[in-house]
Amino acid sequence: MGDIDWSNEEQCLEAVKENGLSLRLVFRQTEKLCFEAVKEDGYALKYVKPEFKTKELCVLAIEQSRVTLRFVPKEYEDIYRMWRIMYG
Questions:
Q1: Are 20 and 40 in contact (CB under 8 A)?
Q2: What one-character-per-residue DSSP string does 53-79 give?
Q3: Which is more confident, 42 or 65?
Q4: pLDDT for 84
Q5: Can you tell me the distance from the alpha carbon of 73 to that of 57, in angstroms, rounded to the nearest whole number?
Q6: pTM of the predicted structure, to 2 decimals
Q7: CA–CA gap between residue 65 and residue 51 (Å, rounded)
Q8: Is residue 30 classed as helix, strand or coil in its secondary structure?
Q9: Residue 28 and residue 12: Cα distance in Å, rounded?
Q10: Residue 61, Cβ neighbours under 10 Å: how many?
Q11: Do residues 49 and 29 lie in contact, with contact meaning Cβ atoms separated by under 8 Å?
Q12: pLDDT digits (tens, 9 = 90+) for 61-86
């Protein structure tokens, strides 16, 4: 990933596509950056700012790893119930 300007959206986008966890270094998150980060690594949900944690993004993360359930906001409790029913 080399010398990335973490305030440059284009460079950040390339970085999170390569390693979703690099989202934690991004100064100004956007919906697109968060989506690409979580698409690359569901655990990146941990670093998504609350205003970008949509239900769809949370489901995308959980589909990759149930461990990410701990990063799902309480307002999406229906996701918890759905996954408990489906996967125990």
A1: yes
A2: --HHHHHHHHHH-GGGGGGS-GGGHHH
A3: 42
A4: 72
A5: 11
A6: 0.89
A7: 22
A8: coil
A9: 9
A10: 27
A11: yes
A12: 999 988 998 999 989 878 877 777 77
